[in-house]
Amino acid sequence: PICGEYRHPAAAAAPGDIVLDAGLFDSTILRRFALSVGQRGHVYGFEPEPDNFTFVQRTLGEFGDPGNVTLVAKGLYSSCGVMNISAEGASGALSAMAGDNSSPCEVITVDHFAKAYALPRIDLIKMDIEGSELDALRGAQDSIRCWKPKLHICAYHQIDDLVDIPALINEISPGYRFYFSSHVPYLNEYVYYAVAPSCS
After folding, report:
1. Who's near 8: CB < 8 A, 6+ residues apart?
2. How far apart are CA 86 and CA 95, in angstroms?
3. I need a surface site. Which of 84, 145, 193, 199 has the fewest CB within 10 A?
4. Taking a C-beta distance cutoff of 8 angstroms, is the pair 89, 113 a contact?
5. What is the end-to-end Cα distance of the chain in Å, rounded?
6. What DSSP string runs through 97-156?
7. What is the pTM of this model?
8. By C-alpha distance, which of 7, 8, 14, 10 is closest to 121?
9. In whole angstroms, what is the distance from residue 75 CA to residue 132 CA?
10. CA angle 130, 132, 133 (to 5 degrees)
11. Can you tell me whether residue 192 is helix, strand or coil?
């Protein structure tokens, strides 16, 4: 079905949800999630690119911090440690190798973050992280198996992601129902929305 990006009715953020939003761009989606979950919910926003992290902090101040957001200056990945992130374009891509226009950044797994923050559950995970989606999903396996969160996973950064992302999710936790949308203005912004059987 046609829907706004990250607004699919079968996988939408709901009041009271705990949301992990990875890849914040201009914070529009982050703020929308925060308003959707309300004060009983919480949104953790992950942004490893230093300049964009500062920009997100500023826009939250300018548009009004909803009061239920925690910003995390780290990227999501399959392991914890230090990588490099490019400063090209509006969003940066993670790499193990340093480049001329890159800077070091911390990365963390969803599973490690959930334990470190003693999260009672995770209700929704959104990832738009410039091709690192598969790696970040590998670092979220325990959380996905345990809590079966709603998933909003971009699949347009790597051509194989169109096949590999749903295959990996089904390998981690069989039975997820998938919805696929192509969003404007570019129409090649492909997103998988996935919902576990108990949530559908």
Report:
1. 1, 152, 179, 181, 193
2. 8
3. 145
4. no
5. 15
6. S--TTEEEEEEE-HHHHHHHTT-S---EEEE--TT-HHHHHHTTHHHHHHH--EEEEE--
7. 0.89
8. 14
9. 9
10. 100
11. strand
